[in-house]
Amino acid sequence: MSKENIALIVGATGLSGRYTAQHLKAQGWTVVTLSRSVADLPWSNHHIATDLEDAAASHETLKSAPSITHVFYCTWSRQKNEEENVRVNALMIRNLFEGLAGKPIKHAALVTGLKHYLGSFDDYAKVKPCTPFLENSPRLPGLNFYYAQEDVLFEMAAKRGFTWTVHRPHTMIGFAIGNAMNMAVTLAVYASICKHTGRPFVYPGSPEQYGAVADVTDARLLAKQLHWAATTAGAENTPFNTVNGDLFRWTWLWAQIAEYFDLPVAEYPGYPVPLETQMIDAPAIWAEIVARHGLQDIPVGKLASWWHSDADLGRTLECFTDMTNSRRLGFSAYQQTSHSFFDVFDELRALQIIPS
């Protein structure tokens, strides 16, 4: 597969976009990346900087894009409420496909997530779902920007004659700086601060989540599934859950993370102790850590996403998924979850972003 396959990765600086671009380039694809700002990305053959919320500007910019054959839509924009989430995110994906009019698109993939089953930020878990989450589950009532994105994708696919897939990962684990949904980097920073200050490395979330069965998604595995679905007969026009393939409980995974950082496991108090509250003084402490260990001078607010990890770890219901749709078609990729975290921690240390 050389230049016959030209992939456009929308959201190329985020976790799913970055790993998908790297994977496709390693497979010999030509990779075109798109983000709001100018970026020099080593995994990109051609970068497009445009704001998809601006219809006129994005349409004009996309005219000069290469002959895109595959689209991988890996981005979203958070707004003040779900009504605005729906409006803005539907507009963005519509502006993209309208800007790509005339391009020889064969397939388009959309990355969403488990709010498909849990509800939007505004209606989260108001309808208690059954686990594991099944890919053929009906949509929940109420507004949900994932549904709005899907509807535009389905409309454009029918209109233009290309195939589609929708991919629903759980919490994404991978290496990225400045990403708003990055638990692995957040926990690495939290552990480093606990080690520096002597604070207890306590699980910050809910008792329900602490003892529940859970799963996560390694960004490398998502990239493999996106590539597989775009090139496998029978996978077209199908939604796919996307997780590592193992299950875990935080009761023991937390102890493994503590061991990695040579920290004692603090006794869980039985109630949430949110990172946003614990880490209110993190900026000054992180500056001390950077100076002491000669680390890259990256502000803690760009590394850690306290609010998002609090949301994931503070759930009051069990969340794990079923992957029947891709398993029955032969997708067998697997990733051990503990090593999803450890590999990110290793990379952060190698790049001198956290202390060794």
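Above is the first protein from milestone M3; the second protein from the same milestone is given next.
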Amino acid sequence: MKNPTRQRKIKLYVTVITFVALVAISFSIRDEILDTIANIRTATLWPIIAIFPLAFLNHLALGKLYQAVFRILGDRFRTRSMVRLSLELNFVNLVFPSAGVSGFSYLGIRMKGEEIEPGKSALVQAMRFTMLFISFQILLGIGLLLLALVGRVNNFVILVAASLSTLLFVGTILVGFIVSSKKRINGFFTGLTKVTNRLIQIVRPKHPETINIKRVEKVFTDLHNNYRLIRNNFTELRRPILFAFASNVTEITSVYLAFIAFGATVNPGAIIIAYAVANFAGIVSILPGGIGVYEGLMTGVLVATGVPVAVTLPGIITFRVVSMLSQVPVGYYFYQKNLSSHTHL
């Protein structure tokens, strides 16, 4: 039986850590917030206001994606609960940067209350990224085509788009290859766990097995079994891919609106490629929300496609700040609500 006092202490610690992380990320983007306030005086307001409902549509699409994947695995959830889950995960990945690992961990803990085993939660989160990556590749092709129509495709842009497409394609195939075999998945992740335990043991000599290998084997055995279930229902993946595509389109539209707010006419193809590159880097970045990395890469790609820096920076900064303001407070609210209402932590 769980100790209520210990549970309360854990929740208090998590709440304090979360609040500190939220303050830290707010402090880290203080310059961007001030720049946005300064720039917004010269901007047209309606495109900026329109970013807020688009943020909701983005999470609605992601919520429907989660709902569709869970349904393939035999679990049914209401759309509202999955939209809320998407907002929570967005908040967690933003304030606890770990190259996407935070989202996987939180989803496993979060879905325990719904009696979903960790292996299934891990697969659902992996499918989310896989669907987004697939739609990235479709969008990259559209972006190159749009740039080609106005003669803005140079060798650098082609190299960036081709490299990213190849990386996403090979990565997807490699993950599928590992997960498709019970022997391969257990061998790969058990070996990875042993290496991780040895590294941790350097810091904690008295703990040779910080991560329980048997527990890891069970999680990834469940992951493999659920993967087989999805593979047997492959045709049903069309809906999640469409929702992933819709999620990406809403964000790209938001970026485009940020440029419109400053009276800039930017080729949508340039925004698509810059968005794809910046978001991929943001996923693997260990910095909060990919701050610095996201803006730097997006600026570099847009400049390479012929967009002036004077136009690029105000648009990107405004999009980033408005996007965070429209999602982080709501995500924090749902995160704290879940933390206070569940006892499985």
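Note on the second protein: The chain has a mean pLDDT of 76.
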